[in-house]
Amino acid sequence: MTNPLPSRRRARTLALALLTALAVRSALAEPAATPLGPAASASGARTGNPASSTAGDATGRLATAPVRALDGSAPLAAEGMVEAVRRSVIAAQVPGSIVALAVKAGDRVAAGQLLARVDARSAEQTAVASDAQVVAARAALDAATREVERQRALFSKQYISQAALDRAEAQYKSARAAADAQLAQAGVARTQTGLHAVTAPYAGVVAEVPVALGDMALPGRPLFVLYDPSHLRVTAALPAGRLARLGGQPRFTVEIAGIDGAITPLRATLLPSVDPATHTADVRLDLPATPGALPGMYARVTLLGATPHADEAAGAGAAGAMPSATPSALPAIAAGPAAARAAGAPIVPPARLVVPAPAVVRRAEIAAVYVIGADGRPLLRQVRTGRPAGDGEIEILSGVSAGERVALDPQAAARLR
């Protein structure tokens, strides 16, 4: 009987060869089948590379923008949040059922005002028992006091021995210690009873009431969130490099969503630390009395520049040099490398680069932009982004240089690669 395996192998080999030949023929015939317009034909005759010309024409229709280096004196905007300087989470200190809620969210309260009451029946009974034990201890102390006085009188007449007097003295001291202990325990019981009444520690506004009547209060469980509306501030993160280039006292303005006009803060506090991941430092801006401002509202902080000190203004003059930061104005932010500090040289950080936010494409944790190369083609380049810079721009910490052009439409740029 003839073995069918060799004939099957030959048929498979012939079919594979036929498919390969058809693929090669199709690839060779494809350029000839693609018609070129007159302009493309003429360009191809001049350059001998019609494909690169077509790509160049398409890239010319791609919207681009330059990588900008922000001037150190230009205003800088950052996002911030309104928060209360004094904000307290008032929690229960004793267990028990909540039997009374005297306030609700949004109510204004005075210092010491009753907010809630926890069931105190068990604590009150304990306090009554402690008071009774105090009465008993005091009666025992009175009896021991009279007894020791009699024993001392008898001992002075030598009617009793020293040992008998010592026993009477010991009983008196024991009774006095027991009375003191019972008195202290009664005080603890009364204090515990007082903790069942929850009061406001200061005048403010009740922001949250996360419990309801009848809920079980446990030590540490939040009952109220209280804040002082007369002391509000805005916290924002600004580039540490920009702050280090400012001398004197930085000038800020604050705009709060829903409130007309810019607000000049009463005081700016620069925290003496820098986030190593974002290279930003937090600034706290104390707000004046601002009707309508509430904790949690969005705020826009604008850094206008700095008011130079008198000695800095004298030295900065005609040269137009940016005065170096002073430790008194910018604690721990103006500090540079050890060598620069030892030499007293001003620390000039690199320029702050920004690009339009739509130019940045993100995939998972990777950010990139399409940079227009020397041949006019968009090239995907990974970058490291920073904080939003305002006006629809975002800071680029590394990956591009000032003056390079980036594509504003990453999807269109990807099709032209």
TrEMBL record:
Keyword presence, Coiled coil: yes
Signal peptide: 1-29
Coiled-coil positions: 134-185
Domain Multidrug resistance protein MdtA-like barrel-sandwich hybrid: 90-223
GO MF term (any one): efflux transmembrane transporter activity
GO cellular component: efflux pump complex
Record-annotated CusB-like beta-barrel domain positions: 235-305
Domain of life of the organism encoding this protein: Bacteria
Biased composition (Polar residues): 44-56
Region of interest (Disordered), ranges: 35-59
UniProt keyword list: Coiled coil, Signal
Family: Belongs to the membrane fusion protein (MFP) (TC 8.A.1) family.
PANTHER family tied to this protein: HLYD FAMILY SECRETION PROTEIN, MULTIDRUG RESISTANCE PROTEIN MDTA
Stated name of the protein: Efflux RND transporter periplasmic adaptor subunit
The species this protein was found in: Derxia gummosa DSM 723
Taxonomic path: Bacteria, Pseudomonadati, Pseudomonadota, Betaproteobacteria, Burkholderiales
